[in-house]
Design a protein that fits this description.
Length: 337
């Protein structure tokens, strides 16, 4: 069985390597997405000091009094997905669209709070910031960090296009509006007993909706992915190295649809840290707080996503019908709020 402590790829071999190194890299990327559903990148291109600073800003933001955080409130409903969501506001689910079933699932709240922002010129989902004097510098930092992450998304999209023998900028051209989302997540310290007995959750098992997700996690642990080979079997994705050393990349539903399932949108969740990683927490009644920073990328709203040529054949027919990225994403997002 794979333990997910291996499978780390060096992204600099793609970004600055020779043709041969780039070919090797995309082959390994393809293997990782087919077999594990995610990959860990080192030398990923996001400035490590900025990642650490982003965690520091995140801790500062979430430590503000509740009424101050509510000066940048996430509007009611799923859209725009911007601003601050308090604990319990969002409940992530998978494959449940019926309102009464969703209400029942909400009885087990996700114990997390989040702050979402996007591109400065995203008119469809304008940013919602705190008044500047409440946390001076926060907005400028997040706007810059967004650009840093977006650049890496575009490089990964090129690598994915190359892995599928598509023109190198194929996927980039479908993401030209840069309607991505930078998310700060804080999971407060919670009772081990309640989490282990599933009376509360941190983030329940789900796949991401868009095309790909970059994820930085702190050293707490708790992220798990479902095995591609055995449904229901979750394996921890241990944090390794210092904060910012490693970037976890997983694919979302729309990339699964584009590739006709060659690459799956891996199901993942956040639980308590794995015991083999943090033995000291066994003695405590509480799991420590956790912070993470996902960055979600998705295609332009009007892009029609359907299985790409080369990803289906007579013997491997299309598994998905065409749908626009905007319609698909909204359908899934609507279930979360
Ligand atoms: O906190 C994490 O590590 C994962 C968060 C996540 O899966 C999400 O926000 O979609
Ligand atoms: Fe996720």
């Amino acid at each position: 069985m794979k333990t997910h402590t291996s499978g780390v790829l060096d992204f600099s071999t793609y970004r600055t390597g020779s043709l041969k190194q780039r070919q090797e890299f995309v082959g390994q990327l393809d293997d990782a997405f087919r077999n594990d559903g995610f990959v860990r990148l080192i030398n990923h291109g996001v400035d490590k000091d900025k990642v650490k600073m982003c965690f520091a800003w995140s801790a500062q933001f979430f430590s503000l009094p509740a009424d101050v955080k509510m000066l940048a409130p996430h509007p009611p409903g799923a859209s725009p997905h911007r601003g601050y969501s308090a604990i319990g506001a969002e409940k992530i689910t998978q494959d449940v669209f019926d309102r009464s079933n969703l209400m029942e699932l909400r009885q087990t709240p996700d114990m997390k709070e989040s702050f979402e922002s996007g591109h400065v010129s995203d008119e469809r989902q304008p940013n919602i910031w705190l008044p500047e004097e409440q946390l001076p510098g926060f907005r400028a930092f997040m706007e810059d960090f967004y650009c840093e992450c977006s650049l890496v998304v575009h490089s990964v999209l090129d690598a994915l296009s190359t892995a599928l023998c598509l023109p190198v900028h194929y996927f980039q051209s479908k993401h030209s509006h840069d309607t991505f989302q930078l998310r700060l997540l804080h999971y407060p310290s919670v009772s081990r007993k309640l989490l282990n007995e599933a009376k509360i959750s941190r983030i329940g098992a789900h796949s991401d909706f868009g095309s790909l997700t970059l994820l930085f996690q702190d050293s707490s642990g708790g992220l798990e992915v479902e095995s591609m080979q055995s449904t229901g079997n979750f394996q921890p994705v241990h944090p390794i190295g210092e904060i910012g050393d490693v970037l976890v990349v997983n694919l979302g539903d729309l990339m699964e649809r584009w590739t006709n399932g060659r690459w799956k949108a891996v199901v993942h969740r956040v639980m308590g840290p794995a015991v083999d990683q943090r033995t000291e927490i066994i003695a405590s009644d509480e799991y420590p707080a956790r912070y993470s920073i996902p960055f979600f990328a998705g295609p332009n709203e009007d892009v029609v996503v359907e299985p790409l040529p080369g990803c289906w054949s007579m013997s491997n027919p299309k598994k998905f019908t065409p749908i626009t990225a905007g319609v698909y994403t909204q359908k899934r997002a609507d279930t979360s709020y």
